[in-house]
Amino acid sequence: MPDVNGERLSDAEALLGAAGFMSVRAVDATGKNRTILEKNNWVVEQQEPSAGAGVADGMTVTLGVRKPTDDQDDVAVEKGVVPDVVCHDLQEAQDALRGAGFFVVVAKDGLGQGRYPLVDRNWIVLGQSAKAGSSPEKKATIQLTVVKFGEPTGDSRCKS
């Protein structure tokens, strides 16, 4: 059994397939039962059977996966104060900003390709136009610079 811990789900499945393991099941390791839409957005955290274990032919390999942003603390929300949403997924960032009373939130492609997020949970926030802790007008536009999971994050130190 190869060790696929720390691999993207798509890469882990390819490695397991190359080793002859054709029955692979991925589950959300956080217990939130989120649907896995894009395998490149998930990283293997645990595997069963474990690496190096002997396994019977046809055995199903179960991979516990999570998104790189799952280890981020919850966003602290205070009415009228911009929360720090850098390194969180776009959906969580939007929810936090709305919870703080800011409803004009736009996403900007951090790679400059002009892409628009369709599934907000598949994008990570690298920067925000309104500084965390500031109190702009409620109608102010807050721009979030984002990239898809697995893409370069520049100087942000965000896990992708």
TrEMBL record:
- List membrane-spanning regions: none
Known InterPro entries for this protein? PASTA_dom
The protein's superkingdom reads Bacteria
Domain spans labelled PASTA: 1-67, 76-148
Protein name as catalogued:
PASTA domain-containing protein
Q: Which organism is it from?
A: Winogradskya consettensis
